[in-house]
Amino acid sequence: xxYSIIILKWEIQKLLxxxxxxxxxxxxxxxxxxxxxxxxxxxxxxxxxxxxxxxKIVIIDAPDTFMDFTGKKEDIYRYQYxxxxxxxxxxxxxxxYPYVKEGSIVVFFSSLKGDFDASVKEKYKRFYIDGIDARxxxxxxxxxxxxxxxxxxxxxxxxxxxxxxxxxxxxxxxxEEYVGSDSEMFExxxxxxxxxxxxxxxxxNAQASxxxxxxxxxxxxxxxxxxxxDMIAMEKNRGFLNKLVMxxxxxxxxxxxxxxxxxxxxxxxxVITFLFLFLSxxxxxxxxxxxxxxxxxxxxxxxxLYMFLAIPATVLVMTSFCFLVALELERFEDAVANMQFILxxxxxxxxxxxFYMFDPIFIEFLIPGxxxxxxxxxxxxxxxxxxxxxxxxxxxxxxxxxxMKRCANMLExxxxxxxxxxxKKIFFR
Length: 429
Description:
Elements: H1 2-16, H2 19-49, E1 55-60, H3 64-68, E2 77-82, H4 93-101, E3 105-111, H5 116-128, E4 138-143, H6 149-179, H7 188-191, H8 193-208, H9 212-238, H10 240-245, H11 251-282, H12 301-328, H13 332-355, H14 370-380, H15 386-413, H16 420-427
Parallel strand pairs: 1-2, 1-3
Antiparallel strand pairs: 3-4
Helix pairs in contact: 1-11, 2-9, 2-11, 5-6, 9-11, 9-12, 9-13, 9-14, 11-12, 11-15, 12-13, 12-14, 12-15
């Protein structure tokens, strides 16, 4: 055990002594990922509307109440106010087509009586004075290009952000007018900010469950792969690993020292990456519908515990696999190529999970590597249970220990070439 700790400290010092390696493991993956996540919605905006700025909203016949409404979020949405009289032929599907085709969302206020505010006021008067809950004749129409997926989700986002808030504003305004200023309605979110946070958190976590698990797992394996190439494949290629075997430290202690160093460093890198994701979510105040990471990501303490218990076990099985490949294959290039093969499998799993909306079956929690993606997804959806966590940790840690024993036997017996052809046949048939 003493030799394992010595090798553990040596590997960590070796990494931290080079700022380039330190950046490559701890900061560069997280920074690049967060940059890509925040750049993605802007690229979608540019592709769909030709602009990277605020979403353009065309308002037709805006009533006075909407102009007085302070929740329009004019720092997020760019408004253009026009009158139906300015549109040749009136407001029709054909007349608003040029606006929606350029990526704008068109909001049209209309009423059978001709005056939107008067119609709304009449409805509330009948409700509060006469006690008649009748259907109103004032309408808000939101038009968008249904041929563009992004335009549709942005229209839904605008309705959620602005139109629904505007309806609540009308409730407050006319309640006070007809009932009196002594009585006052209040929004539950204004009274209790925690409600607002938790509501947004549930939306953000559901969206993030499609993105974060795959990203974290890919970055975990990228770090494991990089460290394994340096710790085993490169040292074996230079002949330094053979010199380590000749020291008093047993092969088992050498490998476990290196594996523990990888587990500690990769786990720390994952925590930093998740912190980047968390902060990126909470500064995404625009809550763009096209964003990969919407506003309000949050995990409860038990969910964080499940996540950070499962990650080291997964790092162990990934590390032991990479060690095994590096020891099995004689050429350094072959070892690197075979380690990258798993990266492609994880990348494929990431894209599948982006569009897979169903709950996973239990057998998926028994597949090493893939089970971490599934577990993190269930954690973000608040559907995880302790049995699933135990299954993932047990499978990954158990398989990792078995593979580490195999690696130690190979290193001790010098079996570098015995299975060389077999590995090449599996991955390069």
